[in-house]
Design a protein that fits this description.
This protein is an alpha+beta fold. The chain has 3 domains: about 60 residues, no CATH class; about 90 residues, Phosphorylase Kinase, domain 1; about 200 residues, Orthogonal Bundle (Transferase(Phosphotransferase), domain 1), CATH 1.10.510.10. The protein contains 11 helices and 13 strands.
Length: about 475
């Protein structure tokens, strides 16, 4: 068999192009190869019957080389014959089609330090019965979520009715088979299973929540994948409303209640920050309010885009082109700039949430576009919450806490969530000992008006 003068791979007799490297087989190229190696090339005409060439016969002329393909019709591939690795060469797309090759689809490029599937020791949340499918592997097509009701996932969790649904997945009420405990099953949408960025975000939520035990953080029991590609999180089932729903139904909340909510959220964040986890998406929808013994009991949800901070092992941001990490209304200036974040970014977001709890509005309620919101976060000093509404009572110490939380310079905010909790405790104690002067004035006015009416009535009765 003749060999290609370019890559030395065996080729068919009479071939005009090499099937391995795609280069044209021309007399000039063959002669050059022969001159460099001292081997006389063997060329064979494209006839089926073998031809014996006499020693004195002239070499059979190979047909002229075809016109090189245009840039639009070529694909770049890399071949690895024996010897030193050659540079990438160009193969005509038409030859690939003839050979039955299918052009490869675009690959998803993952960074070398992309985190593996979380692994959990036995007896801890997310300790599945078997290893999860490696990130980047080909996944089977999962069935529609509507068909999951009544099914048992990995012989451990019975799927019952649907509670809610979002862009990334749906939440079902379920039951843990072994214990009979009610759970919430967060299941990734089938069309998201092929998106490794979304899958990694799902894994990140399981990894982050598995490290947290604070009573004000939603508990994660398990994280696993079924053989047919269903990814799910099993979490504690909450009964109540999101903070967003509470604000919508009840309007501005009394400052004393707001301080209690802020303290419980800060307790959850303090543990997360101590474990090197920054939530990065604090908003009313991610705070759940249950009622226990007549009091608010807060749970922080959705660590799906949490940033695990580590100087030794940097973690990718898990972002896609055009995707915003966080919610614009609550993003800190450093988050908008793309700077490295710490727990003070979560405190800024919590401060913005406090404005809405206290007044029913965010401090940039007049903003008409995302650009104006960004400009506010980056440059404008926010007003005190008490200045935004004359219908609510907000004492100056509460104003001072909120303003410190939303300082543009993070060095001027509270150093951490525990420092915020300490200030809240001092403020609550001071306000309990010294009733708010506005409330005191109101009580005095009511009492004075009542006494005046009684006096007037007695006067007219004794006339």
């Amino acid at each position: 068999m003749p060999h290609c003068p370019h890559c030395a791979v065996e080729i068919e007799g009479g071939a005009r192009f090499c099937g391995a490297c795609g280069q044209p087989i021309t007399p000039t190229a063959s002669a050059a190869k022969a001159a460099s190696t001292g081997v006389v090339p063997i060329t064979t005409p494209p006839a089926a019957k073998p031809v014996t060439t006499p020693p004195a016969a002239k070499p059979v002329t190979t047909p002229p080389a075809a016109k090189p393909p245009s840039k639009a019709s070529v694909q770049t591939v890399r071949v690895s014959p024996a010897g030193p690795a050659p540079a990438p060469v160009v193969v005509p797309a038409s030859l690939l089609a003839v050979a039955g090759s299918i052009p490869p689809s675009p690959a998803i490029s993952l960074p070398p330090n992309f985190p593996p599937s979380p692994t959990f020791p036995p007896g801890t949340p997310s300790s599945g019965s078997g290893p999860l499918r490696p990130a980047g592997s080909v996944r089977p097509v999962a069935q529609p979520l509507e068909n999951l009701i009544g099914r048992t996932l990995n012989h451990r969790f019975l799927v019952e009715d649907k509670i809610g649904e979002g862009g990334f997945g749906a939440v079902f009420r379920g039951k843990q088979i072994a214990t009979g405990r009610e759970v919430a099953l967060k299941i990734l949408h089938p069309h998201n299973v092929a998106d490794e960025t979304i899958v990694a975000r799902f894994r990140r939520e399981a990894e982050a929540c598995s490290k947290l035990r604070d009573p004000h953080t939603v508990t994660t029991y398990d994280f696993d994948e079924t053989p047919d590609g269903i990814l799910y999180l099993a979490m504690e089932l909450l009964r109540g409303q999101s903070l967003h729903q509470v604000q919508k139904s009840e309007g501005p909340l009394p400052y004393a209640r707001v301080l209690r909510i802020l303290d419980q959220v800060a307790a959850s964040l303090a543990e997360a920050h101590a474990n090197g986890i920054v939530h990065r998406d604090m908003k009313p929808e991610n705070v759940f309010i249950e009622t226990r013994e007549g009091e608010d009991h807060v749970k922080v949800l959705d660590f799906g885009i949490a940033k695990v901070v580590s100087d030794e092992k940097p973690v990718p941001a898990l972002t896609a082109v055009g995707q915003t990490l966080g919610t614009l209304e609550f993003m800190s200036p450093e988050q908008l700039r793309g700077q490295k974040l710490d727990g003070r970014a979560d405190l800024y977001a919590l401060g913005m949430m406090a404005y809405e709890m206290l007044t029913g509005n965010l401090p940039f309620k007049a903003a008409k576009s995302p650009i104006e919101i960004i400009n506010f976060h980056m440059r404008q000093e926010p007003p005190a919450p008490s200045k935004l509404s004359d219908k609510v009572t907000i004492p100056p110490p509460v104003d001072a806490i909120i303003l410190k939380m939303v300082a543009k310079d993070r060095d001027k905010r509270f150093a951490d969530a525990n420092a915020l909790r300490d200030e809240i405790a001092r403020t609550q104690l001071a306000l309990d000992r010294s009733p708010d002067r506005f409330e005191a004035y109101r009580v005095v006015a009511v009492i004075g008006t009542t006494l005046a009416l009684v006096a007037a009535l007695l006067y007219f009765l004794h006339r």
